[in-house]
Amino acid sequence: MQAQTESSSAPSRPPAEQVTAYSAWPPLNRTQATLLGLTALAYLIVIAGVLLDTALVDLDWWARLARPYHRWPELEPLLSTWVVAGQRGPSAIAAGGWLVWRACRTHNARPLLVMGTALLLLNVTVGTVKIVTGRLGPHYAHYVGSAELFSGGTIFPSGHTANAVVTWGVLAYLAARWRRTGAVLAGATACSIGLTTVYLGTHWVSDVLAGWAAGLLVLLALPLAEPLLASAAVRIAAHRRARRPDRPHAGP
User: Fold this and answer.
1) How far apart are alpha carbons 114 and 172 in whole angstroms?
2) Could you tell me if 115 and 88 are in contact, meaning their C-beta atoms sit under 8 angstroms apart?
3) Best label site of 62, 85, 115, 198, fewest CB within 10 Å?
């Protein structure tokens, strides 16, 4: 009798306990933590390599002087179209449509919260470095080593590349059943978009390397935000239920 009483009262836990139970998320394991640390280190190394004028900058100039869009002009129409998949507007519309559909279908705001958090972290990790470095793109390079390349630009790191990593990477992150396949497709998309910007001459090689590192850093840090996102999703669902009470049944 006591067991029946306890089992019948279990579903009526207070909202705070429901949030706590739903928010439980395993911490980063050793492999994930190592990858996060290595990615952050790689990001810092690329930034330092650009600011200290190392061999990485020589690689930038080599790619700039090679002018791949002049060597293989037949690829330009196709790649100019493909690179749009990394721009914030088109990619956000495509990803946002799927996320809204999934959120409505599951009555769970978590997909939208994850994407919003990822884009916010991306703006912080990329935007801060853009402001600090003030680097201009290859089209402003009139001679090797010109000082004007650090005169108020916003090209480094490549937001185009980082956005591709985060947007399509978040879709793979949320696709539980197809996460491995989605990760491969997202990685291929982000890599090809980054290289395409180098081909078109809109970014330096180091811009793309930093963009890849910044985007991957955001994806690897997302699990750390999961408890907060889960709590927010539960509270949003509870708020919606409170504002939409059950309607009375209609008469015959």
Assistant:
1) 12
2) no
3) 62
